[in-house]
């Protein structure tokens, strides 16, 4: 049985250290209940797949904090070429792919290639050296500290159960307030 989305995020919350965490679409609402620090950023753009690029920009702009981006499998498919870009930079970017096989927040439509797309092999083929695959919660718990330590880029592919009837996410704070909080955190660390 696949881990739940909540369980996967709980492990991240326990192991994130001083990393910036950018949550997108399906993870936004759940992350807020687990962590609300200056280093948390809820990113809900109008188009899917753009969170990893934001994370790369933050990782390249500063080196004090690693940047974790939590993205869905459907979002990554919307910008699959990003893996090649990610592999081209020695940035402390940690991309967590929550694979539930569906476009969760738009009605639960099955994503193309569900159940047969190997995101780990795609990341390796793009040139990313550090890639982790977790089909079970016990595996994620066992490797999370190692996977989130050291230098990036890193891709972590987590198999999570789909959550039917999800609604589109909302951010806890307006974007300008989130940006001000993140700038404050980066200025003081």
Which stretches are low in confidence, meaning pLDDT under 50 for 5 or more residues running? none
Average pLDDT: 85
Binned strand content? 15-25%
How many runs of DSSP E, i.e. beta strands?
Answer: 8
Q: Choose one word for the global shape.
A: globular
> How many domains in all?
1
Describe what you observe in this structure:
This protein is α/β, with parallel strands linked by helices and 189 residues long. The protein has one domain (5-20, 47-187): Thiamin diphosphate (ThDP)-binding fold, Pyr/PP domains (Rossmann fold, 3-Layer(aba) Sandwich). The chain is 39% helix and 20% strand. The strands form 2 sheets. The chain has a 6-stranded parallel sheet with strand order 2-1-3-4-8-7, sandwiched between helices. It has a two-stranded antiparallel ribbon with strand order 5-6. β1, α2 and β2 (40-43) form a beta-alpha-beta unit. α1 (5-15) packs parallel to α7. It is globular and about 45 Å long. The mean pLDDT is 85.
Any chance you could write out the topology, listing elements then pairs?
Elements: H1 5-15, E1 20-24, H2 28-34, E2 40-43, H3 51-61, E3 67-72, H4 73-78, H5 82-87, E4 93-99, E5 102-103, E6 109-110, H6 119-126, E7 130-134, H7 137-147, E8 154-159, H8 175-187
Parallel strand pairs: 1-2, 1-3, 3-4, 4-8, 7-8
Antiparallel strand pairs: 5-6
């Amino acid at each position: 049985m696949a881990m739940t989305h909540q369980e996967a995020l709980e492990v991240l919350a326990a192991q994130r250290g001083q990393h910036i965490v950018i949550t997108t679409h399906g993870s936004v609402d759940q992350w807020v209940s687990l962590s609300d620090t200056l280093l948390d950023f809820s990113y809900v753009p109008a188009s899917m797949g753009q969170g990893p690029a934001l994370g790369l920009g933050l990782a390249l702009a500063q080196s004090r904090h690693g940047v974790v981006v939590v993205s869905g499998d459907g979002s990554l498919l919307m910008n699959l070429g990003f893996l090649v870009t990610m592999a081209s930079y020695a940035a402390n970017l940690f991309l967590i792919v929550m694979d539930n096989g569906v476009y969760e927040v738009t009605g639960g439509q099955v994503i193309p290639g569900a159940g047969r797309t190997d995101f780990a092999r795609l990341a390796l083929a793009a040139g990313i050296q550090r890639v982790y695959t977790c089909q079970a919660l016990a595996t994620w718990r066992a490797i999370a500290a190692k996977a989130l330590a050291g230098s990036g880029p890193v891709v972590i592919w987590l198999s999570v159960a789909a959550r039917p009837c999800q609604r589109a996410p909302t951010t806890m704070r307006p974007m300008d307030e989130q940006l001000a909080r993140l700038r404050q955190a980066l200025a003081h660390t």
